[in-house]
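=== Per-residue structure ===
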Amino acid sequence: MPPSTDPTLSVSDLNRLARQALERDIGEVWVEGELSGVSRPASGHVYFTLKDASAQLRCALFRTRARFVAAPMRDGDRVKVRGRVSLFEPRGDYQLIVEALQAAGEGELLAALERLKRRLAAEGVFANARPLPYPPRHLLVLSSATGAAIRDVLAVLAARWPLVDVTLIPVPVQGREAAPGLIAALGLLNRQSALDPRRDAVLITRGGGSLEDLWAFNDEHLARAIFHSRLPVMSAVGHEVDTTLADLAADRRAPTPSAAAEQLVPDRRDLTQRLAALEGRLQRAVQGRLDREAQRLDHLRARLRHPGEVLSRQRHTLAELDARLVRALGQRLAAERQRLAQLQRRLAARPPQREVEQAGMRLDAARARLDQAIQHALARQRDRLAGLARELQAVSPLAVLGRGYAILQDDQGQVVRRAQDTHPGQALSARLGEGRLRVEVKRRLKK
């Protein structure tokens, strides 16, 4: 046959296309059937087969959703599941990814529980996360006095940490009286804790059972009482797959009563081993420190010298320093004597008296030159002043007035330059070369 022209898919491509088609075209559905082959590996996921008289369906309930399933999930139980049809690509297995599971016939009850759970979560009732004291000094246990849960708790506490004080508050853990009894006991413990601060933690616990057996722990008022408790609360109700409202409202949840006891206190055997390990480390550290200090002591002892030897060495050093000082002083004194002799020779070659006489002669000559320069400068300045006076006299208005001219001024002191600036009868002042005249205008002439 000729090769096909259609594109060839890999197995992975085909499985991926099939998964996408199933998830897109079918989506989320409710399916009812009988449980078979329930498997719970260490991962926390739950795998099972859902079957009826003529067919079966592989199902996967992942850990994040399995913790909200209250049904016990035993082989042969009839259940209703809600999930998404999908395909596990590595093996090509057609499967249902389960989101919720409930026993058949209990649908309305569980639906109401889911609604209540969502409402309490929205109000923050499940937001408690206070740390529990580790280990608690006085543990208060709310449980049945005759149940297996309290025996498991006490046995684990005695084996791991017998130092903890335990007080059992017997309460009903099943039936109509269970929720009110738990609420009343929890309120009493909170009131008494103010008088006895050693009471620092509460454990609410019971063993496994059916959905009806555990229903009291789904009470709304009990969940609110746990949320408002001043004492931190741990809840360990049922088995690992059972999750109640009390578990969600508590500060911490344990999957079983025994697991709760293990979480509350340390194991004394582990602490004994840790103490032994720390003791060994301490001994090794001390021994190492002693070895190092002994080595340091040996080193210091090797460096230590006899005091007489030290004094002898210091005397020798002092003698050397004394000799060096004497030599240095002698050399300095010789150098100073040589410098003094040189200065004396220079002084004898040029005595101060002769220097003073020569300086006096230079001073007399400078004074004579100064007097002569001053006389010359005064003569030049007198000649220059006389020339400036002549130039000033030549341009002075007083010189013009001396040649017979006059300056007319009105009463405001303004100089009269034109006849048109006056009027008959106006009084004027005439300045002459010598003196002034007071004149009056009789008539204006054009020329």
About this structure: Residues 400-440 form one domain. The radius of gyration is 62 Å.
